[in-house]
Design a protein that fits this description.
The chain is an alpha/beta fold. Helix content is 27%, strand content 27%. Strands 3-2-1-4-5-6-7 form a 7-stranded mixed beta sheet. A 5-stranded antiparallel beta sheet has the order 8-9-12-11-10. A hairpin with a 2-residue loop joins strand 11 and strand 12. One of its GO terms (molecular function) is methionyl-tRNA formyltransferase activity.
Protein backbone atom coordinates (compact mmCIF):
# COMPACT_ATOMS: atom_id res chain seq x y z
CA UNK A 1 0.00 0.00 0.00
CA UNK A 2 1.16 3.56 -0.73
CA UNK A 3 1.22 5.59 2.47
CA UNK A 4 1.87 9.19 3.53
CA UNK A 5 3.11 9.29 7.13
CA UNK A 6 2.64 12.19 9.56
CA UNK A 7 4.54 12.24 12.85
CA UNK A 8 7.76 12.33 14.83
CA UNK A 9 9.87 9.86 16.81
CA UNK A 10 7.06 9.13 19.29
CA UNK A 11 5.87 6.21 17.16
CA UNK A 12 9.04 5.65 15.15
CA UNK A 13 8.65 1.82 15.13
CA UNK A 14 5.37 2.26 13.23
CA UNK A 15 7.11 4.35 10.57
CA UNK A 16 9.86 1.73 10.34
CA UNK A 17 7.24 -0.98 9.83
CA UNK A 18 5.67 0.92 6.92
CA UNK A 19 9.09 1.54 5.36
CA UNK A 20 9.89 -2.18 5.49
CA UNK A 21 6.54 -3.48 4.32
CA UNK A 22 4.84 -0.77 2.24
CA UNK A 23 5.67 2.21 0.03
CA UNK A 24 5.97 5.43 2.02
CA UNK A 25 5.46 8.29 -0.43
CA UNK A 26 6.50 11.05 1.96
CA UNK A 27 6.96 12.03 5.60
CA UNK A 28 5.37 15.12 7.15
CA UNK A 29 6.87 16.13 10.47
CA UNK A 30 7.55 19.10 12.76
CA UNK A 31 9.91 20.27 15.50
CA UNK A 32 9.00 21.26 19.06
CA UNK A 33 11.73 21.92 21.65
CA UNK A 34 9.54 20.90 24.58
CA UNK A 35 8.91 17.41 23.20
CA UNK A 36 11.23 14.68 24.44
CA UNK A 37 10.70 12.79 21.18
CA UNK A 38 11.53 15.18 18.34
CA UNK A 39 11.85 14.32 14.63
CA UNK A 40 15.56 13.46 14.61
CA UNK A 41 15.29 9.69 14.22
CA UNK A 42 12.38 9.58 11.80
CA UNK A 43 13.93 12.17 9.46
CA UNK A 44 17.22 10.27 9.49
CA UNK A 45 15.44 7.04 8.52
CA UNK A 46 13.38 8.76 5.82
CA UNK A 47 16.51 10.28 4.27
CA UNK A 48 18.26 6.90 4.38
CA UNK A 49 15.55 5.44 2.12
CA UNK A 50 15.08 8.51 -0.08
CA UNK A 51 11.65 9.38 1.32
CA UNK A 52 10.81 13.09 0.88
CA UNK A 53 10.54 15.00 4.18
CA UNK A 54 8.15 17.94 4.59
CA UNK A 55 7.80 20.47 7.41
CA UNK A 56 5.10 22.51 5.67
CA UNK A 57 1.37 21.88 6.09
CA UNK A 58 -0.44 19.38 3.92
CA UNK A 59 -2.92 21.17 1.64
CA UNK A 60 -6.34 20.05 0.47
CA UNK A 61 -5.16 20.16 -3.15
CA UNK A 62 -2.15 17.95 -2.40
CA UNK A 63 -4.33 15.52 -0.45
CA UNK A 64 -6.65 15.19 -3.44
CA UNK A 65 -3.74 14.78 -5.86
CA UNK A 66 -2.13 12.03 -3.78
CA UNK A 67 -5.30 9.94 -3.70
CA UNK A 68 -6.51 10.57 -7.25
CA UNK A 69 -3.21 10.70 -9.17
CA UNK A 70 -0.50 9.02 -7.07
CA UNK A 71 -2.52 6.02 -5.90
CA UNK A 72 -2.08 6.79 -2.20
CA UNK A 73 -4.05 4.31 -0.13
CA UNK A 74 -3.65 5.72 3.38
CA UNK A 75 -2.75 8.79 5.40
CA UNK A 76 -1.25 7.58 8.69
CA UNK A 77 -0.88 10.17 11.46
CA UNK A 78 0.89 9.37 14.73
CA UNK A 79 1.13 12.18 17.31
CA UNK A 80 1.18 14.80 14.55
CA UNK A 81 0.49 18.35 15.74
CA UNK A 82 -1.67 19.62 12.90
CA UNK A 83 -5.19 18.94 11.69
CA UNK A 84 -5.11 17.52 8.17
CA UNK A 85 -7.46 18.68 5.40
CA UNK A 86 -9.88 15.86 4.62
CA UNK A 87 -11.27 15.84 1.07
CA UNK A 88 -15.04 15.45 0.96
CA UNK A 89 -15.07 14.68 -2.76
CA UNK A 90 -12.45 11.90 -2.79
CA UNK A 91 -14.14 8.58 -2.06
CA UNK A 92 -10.80 6.74 -2.03
CA UNK A 93 -9.51 8.74 0.95
CA UNK A 94 -8.58 6.77 4.04
CA UNK A 95 -6.83 8.16 7.08
CA UNK A 96 -5.79 6.70 10.44
CA UNK A 97 -4.62 8.46 13.58
CA UNK A 98 -2.70 7.00 16.52
CA UNK A 99 -3.48 8.71 19.82
CA UNK A 100 -1.88 8.14 23.23
CA UNK A 101 -5.01 7.67 25.33
CA UNK A 102 -7.95 5.32 25.61
CA UNK A 103 -10.40 7.36 23.56
CA UNK A 104 -12.94 8.80 23.97
CA UNK A 105 -11.22 9.74 27.25
CA UNK A 106 -8.18 11.93 26.72
CA UNK A 107 -8.72 14.02 23.61
CA UNK A 108 -5.65 16.24 23.86
CA UNK A 109 -2.28 17.12 22.36
CA UNK A 110 -0.82 16.18 25.78
CA UNK A 111 -2.76 13.02 26.67
CA UNK A 112 -0.12 11.20 28.71
CA UNK A 113 0.89 14.25 30.72
CA UNK A 114 -2.77 15.11 31.30
CA UNK A 115 -3.57 11.56 32.43
CA UNK A 116 -0.71 11.59 34.93
CA UNK A 117 -1.71 15.06 36.12
CA UNK A 118 -5.15 13.63 36.91
CA UNK A 119 -3.68 10.70 38.81
CA UNK A 120 -4.80 8.02 36.34
CA UNK A 121 -3.39 4.54 36.91
CA UNK A 122 -3.97 3.52 33.29
CA UNK A 123 -3.60 5.06 29.87
CA UNK A 124 -3.02 3.50 26.48
CA UNK A 125 -3.08 4.00 22.76
CA UNK A 126 -6.00 4.20 20.34
CA UNK A 127 -5.97 3.70 16.58
CA UNK A 128 -8.95 5.39 14.94
CA UNK A 129 -10.20 6.58 11.59
CA UNK A 130 -9.32 10.14 10.70
CA UNK A 131 -12.28 12.53 10.65
CA UNK A 132 -12.85 16.28 10.90
CA UNK A 133 -13.60 15.83 14.62
CA UNK A 134 -10.37 16.01 16.63
CA UNK A 135 -9.55 12.50 17.94
CA UNK A 136 -13.15 11.59 17.20
CA UNK A 137 -13.12 8.93 14.48
CA UNK A 138 -14.34 5.34 14.68
CA UNK A 139 -12.00 3.15 16.74
CA UNK A 140 -10.02 0.45 14.94
CA UNK A 141 -8.08 -0.85 17.94
CA UNK A 142 -7.02 0.03 21.48
CA UNK A 143 -4.49 -1.22 23.99
CA UNK A 144 -4.11 -0.20 27.64
CA UNK A 145 -0.90 0.65 29.49
CA UNK A 146 -0.61 0.58 33.28
CA UNK A 147 0.88 3.66 34.96
CA UNK A 148 2.87 2.56 38.00
CA UNK A 149 4.45 4.69 40.71
CA UNK A 150 7.96 4.26 39.34
CA UNK A 151 7.08 5.36 35.79
CA UNK A 152 7.29 8.86 34.36
CA UNK A 153 5.58 10.24 31.27
CA UNK A 154 8.37 9.06 28.96
CA UNK A 155 8.00 5.51 30.28
CA UNK A 156 4.30 5.65 29.40
CA UNK A 157 5.01 6.93 25.88
CA UNK A 158 7.55 4.14 25.36
CA UNK A 159 5.03 1.51 26.47
CA UNK A 160 2.42 3.06 24.18
CA UNK A 161 4.68 2.97 21.15
CA UNK A 162 5.47 -0.71 21.72
CA UNK A 163 1.74 -1.43 21.78
CA UNK A 164 1.18 0.77 18.72
CA UNK A 165 3.68 -1.17 16.60
CA UNK A 166 1.87 -4.41 17.43
CA UNK A 167 -1.51 -2.82 16.61
CA UNK A 168 -0.27 -1.53 13.24
CA UNK A 169 1.08 -4.93 12.26
CA UNK A 170 -2.23 -6.58 13.18
CA UNK A 171 -4.27 -4.00 11.24
CA UNK A 172 -2.20 -4.14 8.06
CA UNK A 173 -2.17 -7.95 8.03
CA UNK A 174 -5.96 -7.95 7.62
CA UNK A 175 -6.76 -4.39 6.62
CA UNK A 176 -10.14 -4.45 4.86
CA UNK A 177 -12.09 -6.49 7.46
CA UNK A 178 -10.59 -4.52 10.34
CA UNK A 179 -11.32 -1.21 8.61
CA UNK A 180 -14.93 -2.25 8.13
CA UNK A 181 -15.27 -3.39 11.76
CA UNK A 182 -14.31 -0.05 13.36
CA UNK A 183 -16.43 0.90 16.38
CA UNK A 184 -18.11 4.28 16.76
CA UNK A 185 -16.86 6.60 19.53
CA UNK A 186 -19.12 8.34 22.02
CA UNK A 187 -19.97 11.97 21.33
CA UNK A 188 -17.10 14.38 22.16
CA UNK A 189 -19.27 16.51 24.47
CA UNK A 190 -19.28 13.65 26.99
CA UNK A 191 -15.48 13.66 27.08
CA UNK A 192 -14.16 17.24 26.96
CA UNK A 193 -10.83 18.14 25.42
CA UNK A 194 -7.92 18.07 27.88
CA UNK A 195 -6.15 21.40 27.60
CA UNK A 196 -2.42 22.01 27.78
CA UNK A 197 -1.23 22.09 31.42
CA UNK A 198 -1.09 25.63 32.77
CA UNK A 199 2.28 27.38 33.04
CA UNK A 200 1.81 27.42 36.81
CA UNK A 201 1.71 23.61 36.87
CA UNK A 202 4.73 23.35 34.57
CA UNK A 203 6.95 25.76 36.51
CA UNK A 204 9.45 24.94 39.26
CA UNK A 205 9.63 27.52 42.07
CA UNK A 206 11.79 28.10 45.14
CA UNK A 207 8.89 27.51 47.55
CA UNK A 208 8.36 23.96 46.29
CA UNK A 209 9.55 20.89 48.16
CA UNK A 210 11.86 18.38 46.51
CA UNK A 211 9.04 15.85 46.25
CA UNK A 212 6.75 18.40 44.58
CA UNK A 213 9.45 19.22 42.03
CA UNK A 214 10.08 15.54 41.32
CA UNK A 215 6.34 14.94 40.90
CA UNK A 216 6.15 17.83 38.43
CA UNK A 217 9.05 16.48 36.36
CA UNK A 218 7.70 12.91 36.52
CA UNK A 219 4.46 14.10 34.97
CA UNK A 220 5.58 16.75 32.48
CA UNK A 221 9.22 15.79 31.89
CA UNK A 222 10.80 18.18 29.37
CA UNK A 223 7.75 20.43 29.35
CA UNK A 224 8.84 21.37 32.88
CA UNK A 225 10.17 24.92 32.98
CA UNK A 226 11.98 27.28 35.32
CA UNK A 227 12.81 30.99 35.30
CA UNK A 228 16.35 31.96 36.28
CA UNK A 229 17.62 35.55 36.25
CA UNK A 230 14.80 36.62 33.93
CA UNK A 231 15.28 33.82 31.37
CA UNK A 232 12.97 30.85 30.88
CA UNK A 233 14.42 27.36 30.47
CA UNK A 234 13.13 23.86 29.85
CA UNK A 235 14.31 21.29 32.39
CA UNK A 236 16.08 18.41 30.65
CA UNK A 237 17.05 16.48 33.80
CA UNK A 238 16.34 16.80 37.51
CA UNK A 239 17.95 15.36 40.61
CA UNK A 240 17.76 16.48 44.24
CA UNK A 241 20.07 17.28 47.15
CA UNK A 242 19.44 17.64 50.88
CA UNK A 243 21.49 20.77 51.61
CA UNK A 244 19.92 24.22 51.56
CA UNK A 245 21.76 26.75 49.40
CA UNK A 246 23.16 30.06 50.60
CA UNK A 247 21.53 31.68 47.54
CA UNK A 248 18.59 30.81 45.30
CA UNK A 249 20.61 29.63 42.30
CA UNK A 250 24.21 28.47 41.91
CA UNK A 251 25.54 28.02 38.38
CA UNK A 252 27.62 24.86 37.98
CA UNK A 253 28.10 24.81 34.20
CA UNK A 254 26.56 26.71 31.31
CA UNK A 255 23.53 24.41 31.23
CA UNK A 256 23.57 23.12 34.83
CA UNK A 257 22.45 24.84 38.02
CA UNK A 258 21.68 24.14 41.64
CA UNK A 259 18.21 25.53 42.32
CA UNK A 260 17.13 26.12 45.91
CA UNK A 261 13.79 24.77 47.16
CA UNK A 262 12.19 24.81 50.60
CA UNK A 263 13.77 21.59 51.88
CA UNK A 264 17.05 21.37 49.96
CA UNK A 265 17.96 21.93 46.34
CA UNK A 266 17.41 20.67 42.80
CA UNK A 267 20.19 19.77 40.39
CA UNK A 268 18.95 20.82 36.97
CA UNK A 269 20.15 20.44 33.39
CA UNK A 270 18.54 23.19 31.32
CA UNK A 271 17.67 24.17 27.76
CA UNK A 272 16.80 27.80 27.03
CA UNK A 273 13.32 28.39 25.67
CA UNK A 274 13.48 30.09 22.28
CA UNK A 275 9.78 30.66 21.70
CA UNK A 276 6.37 30.32 23.29
CA UNK A 277 7.33 32.06 26.52
CA UNK A 278 4.83 31.88 29.36
CA UNK A 279 2.67 34.95 29.84
CA UNK A 280 4.37 37.32 32.28
CA UNK A 281 1.11 38.95 33.35
Amino acid sequence: MKIVYFGTDVFLPCFSYFVRNHQVLSLYTYHNDEDCFTEYGIVKEAEKYGIPVHYEDMTAAETKRLFTEEGCGLFFSAEYNRILPLPEDVTAFRGINLHSSLLPEGRSYYPIEAAMERGFLESGVTMHKMTAALDGGDILDQSSVEITEGMDSIDVYLRCRSEAERMVQKLMADFEPRWAAAQRQEEPKKHPYWKRPSDEKLTLTHDMTKSEAKACFRCYNQMTQVKIHGTWYYVRALDTGETNLEQDVIAVRKDQVLFGVSDGHLRLILWERKCGMPDET
